[in-house]
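Thread title: Can someone regenerate the structure for this chain?

I was given the following input by a collaborator and told the matching structure tokens would be attached. They weren't. Posting the sequence so someone can regenerate them.
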Amino acid sequence: MVAIEVTNRSDGRAALTGLPRLLVVYTIAISVFLIAPVLIVMIAAFTSGDFIMFPPGGFSLRWFDQVLSDPQFIVPLWNSVRLGIAATIISGLLAIPAALSLVRGVFPGRRWVETFLLAPLSLPTIILAIGLLFFASRIGLSNSFISLLAGHVIITVPYMLRTVLGVYAGVNREVEEAARVLGADRWRTAWYVTLPIIRPGVLAGAIFAFLMSFDEVAVALLLTNSDTTTLPVSILSYLVYNYDPAVAAISTIQIVIVIVALLLLERLFGIRHLMFASQ
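Best answer:
Regenerated them for you:
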């Protein structure tokens, strides 16, 4: 337990001392704890040896050349990218109208509908994957790309919905009403006024949805087949029989894709701005 010293001043106020320094130390410790495993994997990917070791015995790009020319990794990588893009597009088509209705609409059970749409955020993905496996088998879509896509859409819709809700809830209703007064119908108002205003939330939600789909394991593990294997499933399968730096190399490529997406998000809109906008 960390003790915080409290000193009484003559004006009756209490001053907390030592708290800023503790917060800095705590932040640095947590950052190192989270980043260190990622850095170790990325550094180990450049080893010239035949086994994963840290620090690496020498510098080499041989393992990147191997994974980039190996269909065992390239095909799943393309499947993950294709699946992530498709899931993101469908999530946007579902989440954006839902967010507009939840913010501006007045109908019974509105809060219940919002809770239902956001429920996958609190549901363990393994439970969701098992349920989808039984349901897909019952309707004859087991281990198909459609069932895999449906599972990823269920997971990604809440992320798109949450960011759009956060941005649109802070929009002044009078802006849309002014467009209606000037003669624009509902569709023109939505296209020329509402969508440009909520664009930061839409793009931020799209990036987060793609990242969640790209890194999803449980749903893909139960619903995938030999033709739709995703990159996380391929890495897990490879680790069953192999333990060489090829896994570190393909994991590094995956990490770089995620970092580029997050940097794009920060560059375009600022993660801090979006976080405050969603509150």
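DSSP finds twelve helices and two strands in the chain.
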